[in-house]
Amino acid sequence: MPYYQIAFPNFTQELVYYKVQANTSCLIGYRVEVPFGKKQCIGIVIQKTTDCPLDPTKIKPVKQALDEFPILNTYTIKFLKQIANYYQLPINTLVGLAINQAVRTAPIQFKKQWLKANSEKKPKTKTQIEIYNACLNSANYWELYAQYTAKTLNKMIDENYLSAAQESIKQTTPNLIELSSEQTKVLDNIKSSFIGTHLIWGVTGSGKTEIYTHLIQHVLSQKKHALILVPEIALTSQTANKIALRTGVTPFVIHSQLTPKQRIANTMLIQTTQQPMIILGTRSVLLTNLVNLGIIIIDEEHDDSFRHNSQLFFSARDMAVLKAHQEKIPVILGSATPSLESIHNATSGKYDLHHINHRIHTTLPNIYLIQHQSKQLFSDQALEKINHTLDTKKDVLIFVSRRGWANVRLCLSCNWKARCSSCQALLVAHQDDHLHCHRCRTKIPAPLDCPQCKQSELVQFGYGTQQVASEAEKIWPTNPVYRFDTDQTPSTINQQFKQLEQTTGNIIIGTQMLTKGHDFSKTQMVVCIQADQGLYTDDFRAEENLLAELTQVAGRCGRRQLTGNVYIQAKNPNHPLFQALTQPKNQYTQSLLDMRKQYGLPPYTFLAAIFIRISAKDIPHINQLTLNDYPGCSVLGPIPFPSGNRNHKLCYQITCIAESRQTRANALLSYRTLCQAHAKSNWEISWQIDSHFAQS
Ligand SMILES: Nc1ncnc2c1ncn2[C@@H]1O[C@H](COP(=O)(O)OP(=O)(O)OP(=O)(O)O)[C@@H](O)[C@H]1O
Ligand SMILES: [Zn+2]
Q: Ligand 2 is a single-atom ion; what residues have CB below 5 A from it?
């Protein structure tokens, strides 16, 4: 007896068995409406099997598919299973991400529809006329659905104003720019085999994006789709505009801030269009159901944002490499500061490495390291240069690693520091007179006097973006000041990027959001304040990350004719990391790699971490949990991991360091089982493979 195993991403972890009706066509990948308990629910058929461990008489049959075509193809299902297997995640949750919330629950039937206006019947209402006109040359139902209601559209079809049509193929004219000889060499090398993983290690402003546009055009001309991932939503519109300008094809932009309706429309458009498309978005776009993919490009491949860091932990970059391998297409990883893992993979021959050592229009910026201990925001040297830069109508970018007003609020008498009651993180003072927890988003009114000793008023230290913006407005009252951080809405951010182009002598203040990818045309100077702040954390990748961040932010200036200037203010500018910014790029990287090898850390070993969140009263119980080394895998912990504290629960971490991926997978499974057996019912257990949070 054959059975379907069906995913219900909203409410189950496991696949659920249903009977296959005799003489029905195969429904793998289809949405189906099935009885679940007392309700009718929408599930997605993932696989067919003849083995079912349950009592067959209790298994209900699948009635029928909801739509005219499968919502997931067999490639995508196979890919989701591979991710689930590698990261030890429930397939259900991945299916949920792949088809997104909107499609999971939409009871409307999805049809492959192209529509054409009926020349013999003209509508009268304003909306109907608009739709009718949009269909004069045939239009996709889902493109219209993004703007109008399904009711209006269906009524027009029922009343014969619109009828089914063939897909209209849009003619496009590419307008690629001529590449430099260095760029051409990279392009030709990649095109010569057009398969495998390619790492483009090109300095900031070396024209990697232009190489991508040539590669995308190549794929479109082969009638295939191109998928490009960027790390931040803030980068999508700039990249989409550049690609559209060069290829003549407007990319489909997909990210988490689209409305449910836009998401349904986009998901369905991709399913119903044959014409070669460019799909651009952030990490979860990698799970989009596509056929006929010709290339995957991961821009800023080193960026942590490609790691899906919610409960569902996976690296979109690493999985892109897997997907490309599975589909026998090339994957391009591009960065001015590649991750040590990718450099290791490239130098050991697993990836093809392509260097670009020069900028197109100019040279790399001059870097000035400045020792700065004083409480003043800017050193004298930086201040003088900022004044000069603004006088010449150029822009200055000030990089601040923290959003908010001040980093800590504390009492100088008793040393009390404001901490989050829920997760114990230090609270950050904001302009709204509240203290915010950046870890769990709790916020409380800022106390004025010390709640502990009640002896004195509290003081605060450290500069956040809001305070820097306010200072800048005071020092340069006539210059436009723009602040970029995640306290602002995406639309404000987009608007500010547009405004920047219209004004001159701008002061641009921002966090990590500004460090990567942006191609500023007038920014001539970068100032990094409190540059050593990111250095002292418990993540063994801290130095790698800070080096990348500073190199990237330095790379935002002097991208046109004039060489830029970068002022790095730090307490200890003699730290080798800062010195490395002024030296050839691979020397310091090699020393970091050597250190990783010496201490047995990735990429020379394989890490996994288990996180256990418990109530404070269970500390003695977790301390009784002892784990022994597994053959080929050593284990540390459980030890307290304060950065993981959430919702009044304390986080403990167990780190596994294995010799191979397979050993790690086996060891993790075994440790997870032991943890589950020891856990109390209210403990939350999660895990990460290729974790970034292991303590060194
Ligand atoms: N061959 C070329 N001819 C003329 N201009 C070019 C060429 N290649 C790139 N440029 C221009 O140089 C600038 C920097 O290029 P691009 O943004 O592609 O660099 P990038 O390597 O992606 O930089 P980053 O790593 O800093 O994001 C852009 O304005 C781009 O249009
Ligand atoms: Zn908190």
A: 420, 422-423, 425, 437, 439-440, 442
pLDDT at 607: 93
Q: What is the pLDDT of residues 566-604, one digit of tens each?
A: 999 998 898 888 988 888 777 888 889 999 999 999 999
| Residues 393 and 292 occupy one common structural domain | no
Q: What angle do CA 591, 597, 598 make, to 5 degrees?
A: 90
Q: Is residue 258 part of a domain?
A: no
For the residues 103-119, what does the mean pLDDT come to?
78
Residue 613: its H or E element: strand 606-614
- Cβ–ligand 1 distance for 519 under 6 Å, the answer yes
**What's the token pair of residue 653?**
């971490």
Helix (H, G, I), strand (E, B) or coil at 695: strand
Ligand 1 mutation target, pool 183, 303, 360, most atoms within 8 A of CB? 360
Are 371 and 496 in the same domain?
yes
Q: Positive or negative CA dihedral for 371, 374, 377, 380? A: negative
> Phi/psi at 574 (nearest 5 deg)?
-85, -5
221 and 344 fall within a common domain: yes
Same domain, yes or no, for 616 and 487? no
For residues 539 and 671, state if they share a domain. no
Q: Which residues, in sequence order, are CB contacts of 118 under 8 Å at separation 6+?
A: 160, 161, 162, 163
Q: What residue owns the CA closest to ligand 1's atom 12?
A: 207
Q: How many domains does the chain have?
A: 4
Nearest to 391 by CA among 270, 269, 273, 505: 505
Question: Any residues with CB less than 8 A from the CB of 574 and at least 6 apart, and which?
Answer: none
Q: Are 175 and 246 in contact (CB under 8 A)?
A: yes
Residue 135 annotated as binding site? no
The complex's ipTM?
0.98
Q: What is the CATH number of the domain that holds 299?
A: 3.40.50.300
Please tell me whether residue 522 adopts helix, strand or coil conformation.
coil
Measured in angstroms, how far is the CA atom of residue 644 from the centroid of ligand 2?
A: 10
What is the token pair recorded at 73? 């193809």
In a domain, residue 306? The reply is yes
> Which H/E stretch holds residue 553?
helix 542-554
pLDDT band, very low/low/confident/very high, at 102 (cuts 50, 70, 90): low
Half-sphere exposure of 118 (CA within 13 A, CB side): 14
504 and 522 Cβ atoms separated by less than 8 Å = yes
Residue (of 274, 225, 255) closest to 266 by Cα position? 255
Please check whether residues 204 and 338 belong to one and the same domain.
yes
CA-CA distance, 522 to 409, in Å (whole number)? 37
Same domain, 535 and 398: yes
Token pair in block for residue 667:
């060891």
Q: Residue 397 corresponds to which amino acid?
A: L
Which range marks the domain in which residue 98 is found?
3-105
Q: Among 322, 356, 390, give the residue marking a domain's end.
A: 356
Q: How much of the chain, in percent, has pLDDT values that exceed 90?
A: 54
pLDDT tens sequence across 56-65: 888 999 888 8
Is there a single domain that holds both residue 339 and residue 376? no
Amino acid sitting at position 487: D
Residues 441-481 have pLDDT tens digits of 889 999 888 888 887 788 888 899 999 999 999 999 999 99
Q: Indicate whether 412 belongs to any domain.
A: no
Q: Is 536 helix (H, G, I), strand (E, B) or coil?
A: coil
